[in-house]
Amino acid sequence: MDSAEVINEVAGQVAVCQKCNLHLSRKNAVPGEGPAQVELMFIGEGPGFYENEQGRPFVGQAGKFLDELLASAGVTRAEVFITNVVKCRPPGNRDPLPDELSACRGYLERQIEALNPTVIVTLGRYSMAHFLPNAKISSAHGKATWVNGRLVVAMYHPAAALHQPSLKETVLADFSHLPEFIQQAKKVQQVRTSGKPSAAEPAAAPAPEPAQQSLLDLFGAPAPAPEAPPSPQPDDGDDDSTPVQLSLF
Ligand code: SF4
After folding, report:
1. What CA–CA distance (Å, rounded) separates 73 from 64?
2. How far is the CA of 122 from the centre of ligand 1 (A)?
3. Whole-number pLDDT of residue 45
4. CB of 120 closer than 8 Å to CB of 155
5. Is 186 touching ligand 1 by the criterion CB < 6 Å?
6. Which of 19, 132, 216, 243 has the fewest CB atoms nearer than 10 Å to its CB?
């Protein structure tokens, strides 16, 4: 089965999925969309009001801002795959519950495996926690980390900047580094494929990769200090017609 077939199969399964209670209140499941061959994969938290209506990811105000952010990084939506950690809308845009995240996890894992993106961008705390369970977004945003062989870049959810305008410049600055991360990830992948050193890697070939490895580690800079585990925080899902309280940090 090729990647397009896997993506289509997952979309079909998500459309009729009843693995968690979110299926009870959804209008449309939102499996995600984009090409089956991508360099960039974006993972948000869950569908909001408009996404639930249309069955498409990031089509509300947060989606419009995401399009602006992509454009600022020289990327178009047509070039990337966009999905969420849960494929059905949590009622009232509440946070997804642990059992819902767990039930939906397999769909996301299959999408990642099929797409094999060069860089994964997480949007918000819950998608970041899928890869970096102990990270805190206030310090992890804008940074790239190797997780099981994939470069994961943590970003604030675009809705956070809509609800807190002072974050907009931070989000824009974080997105501006995406082309650089893609290029660096490609260089590291080339080194791994060829087994030969290049200008992009340290003098010695990279050591066996731990579960999580900072991009800066690979390029010789000191690793950041470990962070305290995140504390419970309010909702930061996609935008909705109903105002929601958002705090991502
Ligand atoms: S959120 Fe995921 S696991 Fe739950 S019903 Fe929807 S597709 Fe199934």
Report:
1. 15
2. 19
3. 96
4. no
5. no
6. 243
pLDDT tens digits, 24-60:
999 999 999 999 999 999 999 999 999 999 999 999 9
In one-letter notation, the amino acid at residue 72 is S
Measured between alpha carbons, how far is 25 from 89 in angstroms, rounded to an integer?
8
User: Residue 207: pLDDT above 60?
Assistant: no
Kindly state if the Cβ of 140 falls inside 6 Å of ligand 1: no
- Verify whether ligand 1 is closer than 6 Å to residue 115 (CB atom): no
Hey, where are the domains in the chain? 3-218
- The CATH class for the domain spanning 3-218 reads alpha beta
HEC string of the chain?
Answer: CCHHHHHHHHHHHHHCCCCCHHHHCCCCCCCCECCCCCCEEEEECCCCHHHHHHCCCCCCHHHHHHHHHHHHCCCCHHHCEEEECCCCCCHHHCCCCHHHHHHHHHHHHHHHHHHCCCEEEEECHHHHHHHCCCCCHHHHCCCEEEECCEEEEEECCHHHHHHCHHHHHHHHHHHHCHHHHHHHHHHHHHHHHHCCCCCCCCCCCCCCCCCEEEHHHHCCCCCCCCCCCCCCCCCCCCCCCCCCCCCCC
User: Is any ligand 1 atom within 6 A of the Cβ of residue 29?
Assistant: yes
| Protein residue closest via CA to atom 6 of ligand 1 | 88
